[in-house]
């Protein structure tokens, strides 16, 4: 019973701190490290994760606890994302220059098959589509693999050869 | 110890099903006091094909029986529905998936894919609900008690729309889907539950259709996902296709006919390729012949083949390298050194391929865990989470502390010893899953402002305050999108939120707070508040491709 009251009091306290800096939500000092934030958030989760209180609280109270927990998760993410930004080695890059033949024309999905389908056979097109998806995700190596598979499917297509050269050039530039 | 009959489980104790709803196969399980128990099909099978058939003789057939119709009535057999569920039919990936199926898929309302069998039109959630209903009925027969609660697993990279559609499928099957959990997280839970570990593990999930890799920190009962990356078009099917193309070329060379234009024939070659692939996981070479290839003008109907494991490995090495690259990337994102990962869990049938395990061992300088069953571990985790949510794992009457140990020890994961006795009260596992994709809004100049990054722990809420960009602006439209790109148009639009009747004023005067909240199922809720007047606008985004409440029957 007291656990129920405790978690509600905690939740109301967190929700009252609207706009507070992340370390306050987690009950930390301003110069706390990521490790300290992780420990603090795990401690919050052990006592206040909404799943634990699923059966013990009314729906309204559970919503209050869930929201408070979600805000703390947001505070913890501030610490996590800082680390990710400093360690990320491969930022997502724009795909190829506009106008280059390998670049999908317009937003993919709006006009499936536009442009590329006339340039290669059906089998190669499957891999070409995969390459497009990879490019959209900024994944040049993945795109290169798929384009190579496409060329294996349709060795005659100059369109695909050009695309491969473009991607290789882009990749060389990045490394 | 087992008591048979209707009252095998105390009726006051609710039973919740854990379901691994897969692209090719589904597995269901429940957490019982003696361990995780699998739900068996009509013939005693643990693995249920995710196949729904609508045979000419009438009715709906699901599972192993439905698979039999694949060769006789291919147009009436719906498989791989997971590749379509909750997706926009115009998305390139869906267009790609449509080339691999023989049933008809059309565009329905809200750009969602619709299956057409004869004169019936069905949404993808309806198709999947047949599989879920089949599992539910099997479970009810096996346990002798009605079941309404379930936890369903989804791939870590499933989007908002795909998650909503999966929940919808559960609802249509008469199940209350208490939670969707990510497949790798479920696998980690099955591995770590009840063992009070302090370690970092990697879950390498290479299934039939998708590839996911996740890094988790286990801190006692807390399971925190540090990072998760995936490649949603890389799976065992791609390996089959690579081998199938070789077989097709052989067919052309030996029999003198190119089989590629013949869909039924290619289907047979692909099935042959799958069998050869599996054989090569256990053996160094595969020799034999594929028969029943009836081609007009061919020099016979049998295709002999002889493929060594080395040849097969050369064929698939590009794909396997790719999985290793993603794995290295996820380690970077998680900020974890490969050597500090103490366990590598292999999930999904494709991890049985020796080359995959070998390359993984090279990345981590440690052999992956081979004691787990890659087909079943996900449903085990789902069952544990389901039991935890209905309170069966820790309540004194249900699954007591001693019994909770049994769940870990009896599972194929337990490996016998090494089980730490928990306190008298078994601790409920606490899952910290992650947000599957970066979520942002459209700002002036065509750029995006990120509100929630990929890999953030969920449930989560984040807010940002924005101002108006023109004078006397009384209306604000907030375009939400998903994706990593800084330019709005390069991302996938999710929907628009409109805030009307604003008091106007000079540009920059209005303060509008936008809150993004991702719930424990990974589903996004957006709220915008005008801070001066307090006008609130809460919206559940209508995601393109997702079924809306309006066009769903029932």
Structure summary:
The complex is a heterodimer of chains A (175) and B (554). Chain A is mainly alpha-helical.
Q: What structural category arises from helix and sheet content of chain B?
A: alpha+beta
Task: Describe the sheet with the most strands of chain B.
Answer: 6 strands, mixed
Name of the level-1 CATH class of the largest domain in chain A: Mainly Alpha
Query: Distance N terminus to C terminus of chain B?
Result: 42 Å
- Please report the two chains with the greatest interface, counting residues with C-beta closer than 8 angstroms to the partner's C-beta: A-B, 52 and 54 residues
CATH fold-level assignment of the largest domain in chain B: Nucleotidyltransferase, domain 5
Secondary structure tally: strands of chain A: 0
What does the oligomeric state look like here? heterodimer
Q: Which features does this protein show?
A:
heterodimer; A: 175 residues; mainly alpha; Helix Hairpins; 2 domains; B: 554 residues; alpha+beta; Nucleotidyltransferase, domain 5; Actin, Chain A, domain 4; Substrate Binding Domain Of DNAk, Chain A, domain 1; six-stranded mixed beta sheet; five-stranded mixed beta sheet; 12 helices; 28% strand; disordered N terminus; disordered C terminus
């Amino acid at each position: 019973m007291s656990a129920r009251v405790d978690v509600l009091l905690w939740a109301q306290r967190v929700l009252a701190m609207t706009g507070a800096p992340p370390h306050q939500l987690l009950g930390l000092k301003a110069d706390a490290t990521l490790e300290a934030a992780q420990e603090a958030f795990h401690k919050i989760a052990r006592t206040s994760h909404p799943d634990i209180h699923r059966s013990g609280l009314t729906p309204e109270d559970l919503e209050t606890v869930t929201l408070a927990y979600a805000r703390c998760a947001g505070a913890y993410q501030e610490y996590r994302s800082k680390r990710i930004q400093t360690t990320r080695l491969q930022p997502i890059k724009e795909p190829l220059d506009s106008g280059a033949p390998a670049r999908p024309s317009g937003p993919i999905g709006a006009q499936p098959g536009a442009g590329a389908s006339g340039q290669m056979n059906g089998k190669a097109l499957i891999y070409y589509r995969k390459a497009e998806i990879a490019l959209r995700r900024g994944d040049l190596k993945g795109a290169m693999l798929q384009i190579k598979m496409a060329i294996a499917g349709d060795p005659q297509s100059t369109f695909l050869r050009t695309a491969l050269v473009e991607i290789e050039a882009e990749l060389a530039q990045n490394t | 110890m087992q008591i048979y009959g209707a009252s095998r489980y105390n009726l006051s104790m609710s039973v919740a099903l854990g379901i691994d709803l897969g692209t090719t196969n589904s597995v269901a399980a429940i957490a019982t006091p003696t361990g995780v128990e699998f739900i068996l099909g009509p013939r005693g099978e643990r693995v249920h094909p995710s196949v729904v058939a609508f045979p000419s003789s009438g009715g709906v057939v699901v599972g192993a029986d439905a698979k039999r119709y694949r060769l006789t009535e291919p147009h009436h057999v719906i498989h791989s529905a997971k590749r379509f569920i909750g997706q926009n039919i115009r998305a390139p990936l869906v267009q790609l998936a449509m080339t691999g199926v023989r049933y008809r898929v059309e565009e329905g309302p809200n750009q969602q894919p619709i299956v057409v069998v004869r004169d019936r039109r069905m949404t993808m959630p309806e198709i999947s609900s047949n599989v879920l209903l089949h599992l539910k009925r099997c479970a009810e027969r096996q346990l002798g008690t009605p079941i309404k609660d379930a936890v369903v697993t989804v791939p870590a990279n499933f989007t908002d729309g795909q998650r909503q559609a999966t929940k919808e499928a559960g609802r249509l099957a008469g199940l209350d889907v208490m939670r969707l959990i990510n497949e790798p997280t479920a696998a980690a839970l099955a591995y770590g539950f009840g063992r009070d570990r302090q370690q970092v593990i990697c879950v390498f999930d290479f299934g039939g259709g998708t590839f996911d890799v996740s890094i988790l920190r286990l801190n006692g009962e807390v399971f925190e996902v540090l990072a998760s990356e995936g490649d949603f078009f890389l799976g065992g099917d791609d390996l089959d296709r690579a081998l199938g193309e070789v077989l097709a070329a052989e067919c052309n060379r030996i029999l003198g006919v190119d089989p590629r234009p013949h869909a039924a024939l290619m289907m047979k070659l692909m099935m042959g390729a799958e069998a050869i692939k599996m054989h090569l996981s256990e053996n160094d070479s595969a020799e034999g012949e594929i028969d029943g290839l009836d081609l007009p003008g061919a020099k016979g109907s049998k295709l002999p083949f002889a493929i060594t494991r080395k040849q097969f490995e050369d064929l698939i090495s590009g794909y396997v390298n790719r999985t290793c690259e993603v794995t290295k990337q996820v380690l970077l994102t998680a900020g974890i050194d490969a050597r500090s990962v103490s366990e590598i869990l292999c999930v999904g049938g494709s991890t049985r391929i020796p080359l995959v395990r070998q390359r993984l061992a090279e990345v981590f300088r440690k052999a992956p865990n081979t004691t787990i069953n890659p087909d079943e571990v996900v449903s085990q985790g789902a069952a544990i989470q389901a039991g935890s949510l209905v309170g069966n794992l820790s309540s004194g009457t249900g699954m007591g502390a001693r019994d909770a140990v049994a769940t870990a020890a009896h599972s194929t994961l337990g490996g016998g010893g090494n089980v730490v006795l928990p306190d008298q009260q078994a601790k409920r596992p606490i899952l910290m899953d992650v947000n599957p994709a970066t979520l942002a809004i459209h700002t002036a100049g065509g750029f995006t402002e990120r509100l929630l990054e990929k890999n953030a722990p969920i449930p989560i809420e984040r807010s940002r305050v924005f101002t108006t960009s023109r004078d006397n602006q009384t209306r604000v439209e907030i375009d939400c999108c998903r994706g990593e790109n800084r330019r709005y148009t390069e991302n996938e639009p999710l929907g628009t939120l409109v805030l009307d009747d604003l008091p106007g004023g000079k540009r920059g005067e209005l303060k509008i707070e936008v809150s993004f909240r991702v719930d424990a199922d990974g589903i996004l809720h957006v709220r915008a508040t005008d801070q001066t007047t307090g006008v609130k606008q809460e919206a559940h985004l209508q995601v393109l491709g997702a079924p809306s409440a309006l066009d769903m029957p029932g």
